[in-house]
Design brief:
Helix 1 packs antiparallel against helix 2. About 80% of the residues lie in helices and about 0% in strands. The N and C termini lie far apart (about 25 Å). It is mainly alpha-helical and about 60 residues long. It has four helices and no strands.
Length: about 60
């Protein structure tokens, strides 16, 4: 079940990546639901996903 939440989280973040404010909000919600090891995996995914989307990087800085 937990893996499904992780995959769903990635899907949601991809879909809302057009709006940095919404992206940050969804990321905050995800961090409350995911397990610690999933947060580590999501962090790696986010670093790769936001390489070409610098406007989303500010969300990562706020969370760390």
């Amino acid at each position: 079940m937990s893996r499904m939440i992780y995959n769903y989280t990635k899907t949601v973040l991809e879909r809302v990546s057009f709006d940095a404010k919404l992206f940050c909000k969804e990321l905050e919600k995800a961090l409350k639901m995911l397990l610690p090891y999933e947060i580590e995996q999501l962090t790696e995914w986010l670093l790769n996903f936001t390489i070409e989307k610098p406007e989303l990087r500010k969300c990562l800085l706020n969370e760390n």
